[in-house]
Amino acid sequence: MEIINSIGRRKSSVARLFLKSGNGKITINGKDIKVFFPQDYIRQIVMDPMKVSGAEIDFDLNINVEGGGFKGQSEAIRLAISRALVKVNEDYKKPLKEKKYLTRDARVVERKKPGKPKARKSFQFSKR
User: Where are the strands (E) in 4-94, listed by range?
Assistant: First the structure.
């Protein structure tokens, strides 16, 4: 099997994934997943598409991720994994789509407006 690549985005994070057949090793930016994401619940977000499709130990993943924080990065990786699994086998599409792992979450931080301290917050109004 050749190397399959896909891309995932979330907030300001971009994840590039290279998937090849192997024994389930996941490397993120040159580090093991347990070193890169020490929090268990964040690793769970990354691993969910593999568990839903049942392909946990079939593939090796090499991931490059940049931008954003750990939550945005993990969700960008999840989208990239889901897209790559669908490229490998179309049968994985239905369970991944039901969990909404193939949908790009387009919510991003709203920009700050002039004359306001934050995007929508206003200074206290004084009538007199």
Answer: 4-10, 13-21, 26-28, 31-32, 59-66
